[in-house]
Design brief:
single chain, alpha+beta, 20-stranded antiparallel sheet, 38% helix, 28% strand
Length: 544
């Protein structure tokens, strides 16, 4: 508890430099990031060694001057174990972006600046203004670096006419800003700091709207006519052993929360019966459960300001389906899924341009073709329906391209061939003929997608997405095909770099909360250390 209070006190002082109207605030927890990285100092990395190998003469000599800092970051005077912050805000005619760091030692930081200055031909000049030190390049458009005894600000302004004096004045205002004038006065932001992870992002929608140009702001407000005050998006990135977790949370304004409360478009869970006919193997999946009548009410309410738009939309839908928008949406029970269950190579016939040009030069203008291997994805699109009206509309609109074969239909549209049918409430479209025949003949496997981790997750989620990133799970001939397409040198680097990943997942918990998880193969080591080590191991190939 003592440590926590001390940390908040220190952070509170640092956060005083952020104005109340900040649009975006990104917080990097230096202490946890440093610990999880597994790196004691930059000088021990392959990246550092590779940089030195590529330097010669004066460049190497100048770079070597900074060796004490690369061996011990404290020699820079910057406290990299404290929070460091990026934020943006608007003031008068300019937008500002600011990077903020805590200082351990003002004099050591000045020494580091002088060393960097020396390597750049003494182009910089540190100036003083009372308790503040600063430097700025002579170029009027260049940013300013300003610091006092405990804080360092790097300020960039969008106003290209901003003078050095104006930059200095803005920096002093931020450094002298009282807590009541800062974002610390925002209770929601204080809670955000208590919940912070390794990297935390704060986006204030109301402030964002205020920063839009007048015309764009008017257009957005016309489309979303709700008071956004108090609506904030928070993103938290947490490097854990074996995975990197991103949590997304939205705090809504009262008006917006009331709107979504009345128009709850996402169901609480997904009816997994839809995916019970799909193979358990999946390379990628996107599934969601939508209340389509609530969606209709939301669209109608949002377009209430412009009935002409709503009537135009209704007319377009009716001309295509013979049903009004409400009737069309009412055909869907809610579940939708897209799933890739297979990947392979197939023979396709293409034009042999080399043979054609050679023959043409001899007066022969015949077309020449050849067979080549091409990757193919076997996929399925599924939806739960309330009746057969939708499938009948599809058949009618695609008349001439659809042929019935037993209990399924074939669709031939140019080079695309697909198969579909309605089985109970399950509408299935796939490019895999073997799969549709199994579904039509009720011979699907008992061990199916419903029984997989995807199905179990969907039982308590309204939306889910998954991508298999583990190359070991893909057919060797497919991996080899892609290697041959991009070249051995590059493919070796890519495969080695991708070799650390397992899968990527997205889970929607509610309209206010969702999560993205990047899973790694190594589940015993912190994910940040694994990612850094992978980059460091491949740095030579990347730089070459």
């Amino acid at each position: 508890m003592i440590i926590s209070v001390a940390s908040c006190s220190k952070s509170g002082n640092l956060y005083n430099v952020i104005p109340k109207n900040a649009t975006i605030v990104a917080v990097f927890n230096g202490k946890t990031l440093s610990k999880k990285s597994g790196i004691e100092n930059f000088a021990s990395t392959n990246a550092y060694k590779k940089i030195k190998e590529n330097l010669t003469g004066d460049e190497l000599a100048n770079f070597t001057i900074l060796d004490p800092i690369f061996n011990n970051s404290k020699e820079s005077g910057i406290d990299f174990n404290s929070d460091y912050i990026f934020y943006s805000y608007k003031k008068e005619a300019s937008n500002y972006m600011v990077f903020t760091f805590s200082l351990l030692d003002k004099s050591k930081f000045a020494e580091m600046v002088e060393k960097v200055n020396k390597t750049n031909g003494n182009k910089l000049k540190i100036e003083s203004d009372g308790d503040y030190s600063y430097f700025k390049l002579e170029d009027q458009n260049s940013p300013i670096l300003i610091w006092d005894k405990s804080k360092l600000l790097f300020i960039i302004a969008s106003n290209k006419e901003m003078t050095k004096e104006a930059y200095l004045a803005e920096g002093k205002i931020l450094l002298e800003q009282k807590p009541k004038m800062s974002i610390n006065e925002n209770k929601n932001f204080s809670k955000f700091l208590k919940d912070q992870k390794d990297i935390s992002l704060w986006i204030d929608y109301a402030a964002f709207m205020d920063n839009l140009p007048p015309m764009q702001k008017m257009i957005v407000q016309n489309k979303v006519p709700y008071d956004m005050t108090g609506t904030v998006m928070k993103v938290f990135a947490d490097f854990q052993n074996g995975k990197l977790v991103f949590d997304f949370k939205v705090d809504m304004s009262k008006e917006l929360e009331s709107f979504f409360g009345k128009n709850k478009i996402m169901k609480d869970k997904f009816n997994t019966d839809l995916i019970s006919v799909l193979p358990i193997k999946s390379y990628a999946n996107l599934s969601t459960a939508i209340d389509f009548m609530a969606l209709y009410q939301m669209v109608s309410s949002a377009m209430n300001q412009n009935q002409q738009d709503m009537q135009q939309l209704d007319t377009q839908v009716e001309s295509m389906t013979g049903m009004t928008l409400k009737e069309a949406l009412n055909e869907f029970s809610g579940e939708l899924t897209f799933n890739i269950h297979g990947i392979g190579l197939e023979d396709v016939e293409v034009t042999d341009y080399m043979a054609y040009e050679m023959a043409k030069s001899k007066g022969d203008i015949k077309n020449y073709t050849k067979k080549v291997k091409s990757p193919i994805l076997y996929y399925t699109i599924g939806a739960t329906l309330n009746s057969d009206k939708f499938i009948n509309v599809v058949i009618k609109n695609l008349e001439g391209m659809v042929k019935k074969t037993g209990d399924f239909y074939s669709l031939n549209a140019g080079s695309m061939t697909g198969y579909f049918g309605l089985y109970g409430t399950k509408f299935i479209y796939t490019n895999d003929k073997i799969l549709i025949e199994k579904i039509a003949n009720k011979k699907t496997d008992d061990n199916n997608l419903k029984n997989s981790n995807i199905g179990k997750t969907l039982e308590s989620a309204s939306s889910y997405a998954f991508i298999d990133l583990n190359l070991d799970n893909y057919p060797p001939e497919v991996v080899q095909y892609f290697k041959s397409q991009i070249g051995d040198d590059l493919s070796d680097v890519l495969i080695k770099s991708l070799g650390i990943y397992n899968k990527l997942e997205f889970i929607s918990k509610s309209s206010k909360e969702s999560q993205i998880v990047l899973w790694l193969k190594d589940n015993k080591t912190n994910s940040l250390e694994v990612l850094i080590n992978s980059f460091d191991e491949n740095i030579e190939a990347i730089m070459n």
